[in-house]
Amino acid sequence: MLDLFEGEAPWQEVLAEDAVILRRYAREDDQWLFRHIMQVASLRPFQHRITPGGFRMSVAMTHCGSRGGYPENPPVPPVSLPAELQQFAVRAAGSAGFSGFLPDSCLMNRYAPGSKLTLHQDKDEKDLRQPIVSVSLGLPAVFQFGGFDRADALQRVLLEHGDVVVWGGRSRLRFHGIAPVKPGSHPLTGAYRYNMTFRCAG
Ligand SMILES: O=C(O)CCC(=O)C(=O)O
Ligand SMILES: [Fe+2]
Fold first, then answer.
1. Predicted model pTM
2. Whole domain around residue 181: which residue ranges?
3. Residue 60 falls within a domain, yes or no?
4. Domain total for the chain?
5. Ligand 1 pocket: which of 58, 178, 189, 192 to mutate (most atoms within 8 A of CB)
């Protein structure tokens, strides 16, 4: 996919109070970040979770580090959070104004065309004072960023390869989601969008 901002330095866009997009922040690190996703997925393959309502989620997930409250079936041996991934997330959080981030978990999502993530709050983590650092790789997707009520108005922003969203503090419990991903092809990730969310799951 052609990036019109390819030669530009990364820049920041404020989404809300304590929520910022670090545009193209991960662009230079995309290769090794993606290698980590592939490595984790080779040990703990991507799975489509079944929701409590009995639906198979369109997004496929895996993770490394602490499992926190994320359910898993069948159980798979743990994979630790690589130090360089953790350091990357700490640095990104710092750039967004969150010092002292201590992520112990990285959830990895894989979106095939048509996959989406319904509006939700990230509230399984024990320490909600710590932010979420979310890295987008591959195909673009529309990120929906709402309020504290599911029905609140949504901002819709296109997240592209290398974009990092950080939200915490007063925005930590905002509803958010991903609209269905459009078909396409990306030189690094092929027909998929990948996302990594770093968290302090506890
Ligand atoms: O894929 C994304 O950009 C968001 C992922 C997300 O919200 C989550 O995994 O909880
Ligand atoms: Fe989320």
1. 0.95
2. 11-199
3. yes
4. 1
5. 178
